[in-house]
Design goal:
With about 220 residues, the chain is α/β, with parallel strands linked by helices. The protein has eight helices and ten strands. Strands 1-5-4 form a three-stranded mixed beta sheet, with helices on one face. A three-stranded parallel beta sheet has the order 8-9-10, with helices on both faces. Helix 5 packs parallel to helix 6.
């Protein structure tokens, strides 16, 4: 049997992985797919892409409203592909299908919500005791965000990390759990289809000692 093959999504492209591991179907105990095992070098490329995009015209020229429309579009794609995503999550993690279908039914709503929120960030004017000065607070993106998602409910748990980060203008490197990453690696196809600039969203998976440790300690990651 030919195993399904998944790939990391880095800088707007799906990579051919240098290392892979087999994912086990819990219902059969047999391998059903190969997953990319991101190396430290892969993480470096993803973070560097996110950092470069954060300052690029492709990202900074987007208004908050435009970012919001991308998130709304992503939510629509999640809804349109809900059946496939739920089936992938069940096959790769063993969660019962009625639960994964129930959860994916409202994941799209989270992206729509944060899409609507994107241009609602407001600064403020602070009164001070100097007649010749104005003080304002302006909200700006913090930088590159590293999002690490556990194996259970990956699509939902990634929505509550990815949605607000992108709405705020940050770029993201998201690490799917090595225990059942299929739904998030498939979700990367929807990110690409939605039209996010290359490097603004990077999705990969791998093991803690290489991928996770490097991502959470990378000097270019802001949060």
């Amino acid at each position: 049997m030919t195993l399904a093959a998944f790939r990391n999504f880095i800088d707007g492209a799906f990579d051919t992985p240098t290392a892979t591991f087999e994912s086990i179907d819990p219902s059969t105990g047999a391998p059903w797919a190969t997953m990319p095992a991101a190396t430290e070098a892969d993480v470096d490329r993803a973070v560097e892409a996110a950092h470069r995009t954060l300052r690029s015209a492709a990202w900074t020229s987007l208004t908050a409203t435009a970012r919001g429309k991308l998130l709304v579009r992503l939510g629509e794609l999640v809804v349109a592909n809900a059946r496939r995503l739920a089936e992938l999550e069940t096959r790769d993690t063993g969660k019962i299908i009625r639960e994964t279908r129930a959860q994916i039914a409202y994941v799209g709503d989270y992206y729509r919500y944060y899409g609507g929120l994107a241009d609602k960030h407001e600064g403020s004017h602070l009164p001070i005791d100097k007649a010749d000065m104005d003080v304002t607070i302006r909200r700006e993106p913090i930088g590159v965000v590293a999002a690490v998602v556990p194996w259970n409910s990956q699509l939902f748990l990634s929505a509550v990390k990815l949605g607000p980060a992108l709405a705020a203008g940050c770029t993201v490197v998201l690490k799917a759990s090595e225990d059942g990453p299929a739904p998030l690696l498939a979700f990367a196809e929807l990110v690409d289809e939605a039209g996010f600039p290359a490097g603004s969203v990077n999705i990969l998976t791998g093991f803690g000692h290489d991928c996770g440790r490097r991502l959470t300690s990378h000097p270019l990651v802001s949060r």
